[in-house]
Design a protein that fits this description.
Radius of gyration: 19 Å
Low-confidence stretches: none
CATH topology: TIM Barrel
Strand content: 15-25%
Amino acid sequence: MKIEAELHRILEKAWCSIPLTRQDCKYLLSLEETSFASGLLRSTAGSIIRSKNDNSAVILGQIGVDISLCPGGCKFCVFGDGHTKFTSSHMSEEELYEKIEGFCKFGDLYGLYLMTMHQYDLDHYLRVIRQARKSASETTQIWANVGDSGLEALQEIRKAGVTGIYHVCRIGEGKDTNLKPEDRIRTMRHALDAGLELYTCCEPIGPEHTVDELVDNIFIGVEMGITQHAAMRRVAVPGTPLAKYGQISELRLAHIVAVIALCSLTVPTMAYIGVHEPNALSYASGANIITAESGANPRDCQGDTSKNRGMDMARCRKMLFECGFTHIRRGDESKIPLNLEYLHQTDSLN
């Protein structure tokens, strides 16, 4: 079958580690995800990323440590003030310790996110970080997922033991949220200035979003020098204002993951590509990060997502194995062979 000259040109650039332009990415995102061209795009991204990382993947954990009525008012989030059904709560030290123990039992958790609300108590959060640093494996990095923050707060978070931070200027920021895009980007710059690695994402992607919107969002991270990029589809959670628009398919999400992978792979600090929520199609299309979740989750009506949407460590290991990865990386970049024997050892075959 003949390949379009433009597609061939762009994929050749990717193979040769030549940065893709915005126009290149627009072309790729405009391809129909059910087409042969999309299949070629996805397989190319998967092959390049796996070759760069010795066919290895990383498992992350995220614990939502707080719940509150969030003034961010995000129309896709279950905690948004004005539509949430949750009441404020804090995870106890005992529960946090128990969850960290579960994530780190076999020493193969690369990084642990501690997620709180947009507005948070810094002193309380620093105590949570210190407890996590004491409880987690030495080879597990501690990461932050917090609201907009000043430089001094992020410096304190780094001193407490955090390596990196997840922060996003989301699609529709300022329209679908009560937050300002410039504040979101300012926090991302503060994070880099504080010496934190920056992890971001094109999110939350809905069926109504245009190719131009996706490209603009993707390149925020590409141009800032992130360590991880990702794609996340918006989940149509009942009760959230944007649920009426539905959600994109996992196939479309995998197509977007492939484009982000090819757009990001020439960023000097880039290491890994994420997808949320985890799905096999995306792991064949360039993604190599999987996330286990517990506690509060903005895409879940349950107070503890581990009892509903959130995947556990065992399911994460097994999905990575089924998707053909041969190694899991720890937070110190050492590798564990991912095979049937390891799945048996970690009780991950059920």
